[in-house]
Amino acid sequence: MKLLTTRVAPEWVDYNGHMNDAEYARVFSLAVDTLMERIGLDAEGRERQAYTLFTLETHLCYRREAHQGQALAVEVRLLDRDAKRLHVFFTMSDEAGETLATSEQMLMGIDTGSHRPAPFPSGVFEAIDALPQAEPDAWPTAAGRRIGIPR
Questions:
Q1: What Pfam family is a match, any one (predicted)?
Q2: Are 7 and 66 in contact (CB under 8 A)?
Q3: How many CB atoms lie within 10 A of CB 141?
């Protein structure tokens, strides 16, 4: 499911002439915001339900450089979920469909009144069901990776 389209802003380009590593994280963060809107947690939904999502963990993999003005598209796939967590996989691509970066994330549902983890509200839970889901044996190859030096 395509969530977000944008372009590499001039201020995102670093001294190496391509998008700075932190800006990839910014784009994936914007994709999380868009995901929240899609599942009923836009500003009004967050206020009405006293509920939001926090990012618990992110694993970002850089594949190709992105340059000023370049078009970016971010898609999401649900890897897993329980009553209050989402395990999602984002893919950032260019106009030709080449993967520029991926971001695997664990998101936690939070009751904003108590600032504690809480189950997804019913409408949100149903909206999550509508997200494209990867079968456990068909996860993207970059999902579930760990960082380490191969020996």
A1: 4HBT_2
A2: no
A3: 7
Query: Rounded CA gap, 10 and 8, in Å?
Result: 7
pLDDT band at 151 (very low <50, low <70, confident <90, very high): confident
pLDDT in tens, 116-126: 999 999 999 99
Q: How many CA atoms lie within 13 Å of 133's alpha carbon, on the beta-carbon side?
A: 10
Cα 57 from Cα 87, distance rounded (Å): 10
Containing 25, the helix (H) or strand (E) segment is helix 21-38
Q: How many residues does the chain have?
A: 151
**What tokens were used for 69?**
């003005």
Nearest to 102 by CA among 142, 144, 138, 136: 142
The pLDDT assigned to 146 comes to 84
d(CA 95, CA 71): 6
Using DSSP's 3-state secondary structure scheme, residue 22 falls into helix
Tokens representing 32 are 């999380």
Q: Please answer whether residues 28 and 92 qualify as being in contact, where contact means their C-beta atoms are separated by less than 8 angstroms.
A: yes
Q: Are 143 and 99 in contact (CB under 8 A)?
A: no
